[in-house]
Amino acid sequence: GHSIDGAQLSRQADRLLDLQEEDREALLFATRCLDREPLLVRHGLGVAVHLLDLARAEAMPRALCKALAAAAMVHDLGKALLPRDLLALPVLDARQHRWVQGHVPMLEQRLSDCGWVSRPVLDAVVGDINERLDGSGYPNQRRGDQLSQLARLASVVDVIDILSRQRPGRDPWSVGAIYAWLDRNPRRFDEQWVKRYRNHFGAWPVGSLVRYPDGLIGRVAALDSRGLPSRLRLRADDGGWVDGEALAQRGEPETSLAAPAD
Questions:
Q1: S-S: 13 plus which of 45, 70, 177, 262, CB 3.0-4.6 Å?
Q2: What confidence tens digit (pLDDT) does each residue in 46-56 have?
Q3: What is d(CA 254, CA 213) in angstroms, rounded to the nearest whole number?
Q4: Which residue in 238, 256, 218 sits closest to 33, CA to CA?
Q5: What is the distance of C-alpha 20 from the center of its chain?
Q6: pTM listed for this prediction
Q7: pLDDT > 70: what percent of the chain?
């Protein structure tokens, strides 16, 4: 119930930026390999790392990249203040849904020590990340021109990450299924940011699970210049890695798969 520690958040955001500069693909891959952290933490880190990676690709200033990563790390932590039984429900009625929406203002009230994060970034990544262009989002049903470019970007990164993860009452989706769903909902998400996300991370994003025509299944750890997997971590029951010529000779993956629980 305490406020977010601004100094600690700053250190952790700097750490993410350092790791991204050191090896961006390793950091992206790591967000899919967490198995002990709560979903709120896994999702927050996943959004932060992918938002940071895309912001860097868009040549955004370092200070802005740091603020985006910091805000993304904590953007869902207001849910930790809600009853656990509520978060475990697979389906919410209207009253329960309004209760869950309250996590946004509860977190905003606890960001007073994070003055180094600019207000436009907090508004976009904490306040508006759950809003939708057609007004169907929450907590304020903001729409269209009311949403900044940062909010539009953040909402795309956020929904792709959460749909890829196991949640109460919902199995994870494959990357292909997520992209297809976004294509069917052009009025809810900014098409330009959806396109930029897909162009940047590709059809076989680092961290995604893929299957080859010969039946080989693994998690993508690196991509080559053509956007094809160049290094693959095999399923836990198989173990090991495949890369180099052994992977290149298999060509392109056949399909993306819904990943098991992290």
A1: 70
A2: 999 999 999 99
A3: 5
A4: 218
A5: 15
A6: 0.95
A7: 98
Q: What is the rounded average pLDDT for all residues in the chain? A: 94
Give me 104's structure tokens: 């946004």
User: d(Cα 63, Cα 101) in Å, to the nearest integer?
Assistant: 29
How many residues can be counted in the chain?
262
Q: pLDDT tens digit string along 210-261? A: 999 999 999 999 999 999 999 999 976 667 999 999 999 999 999 999 977 5
Cα dihedral: 167, 5, 112, 83 (round 10): 30
Is the confidence at residue 151, as pLDDT, over 80? yes
Q: Residue 221 has which token pair?
A: 């750890």
The tokens of 12 are what? 């952790």
Cα angle for residues 178, 183, 188 (degrees, 5° grid): 95
Helices (H) and strands (E) in the chain, counts: 12, 5
In which order are the strands placed within the sheet that holds 255-257?
Answer: 241-243, 229-234, 217-223, 209-211, 255-257
What Rg, from alpha-carbon coordinates, does the chain have? Answer: 18
Residue pair 150/68 in contact by the 8 Å Cβ criterion? yes
The tokens for 175 are 């990357």
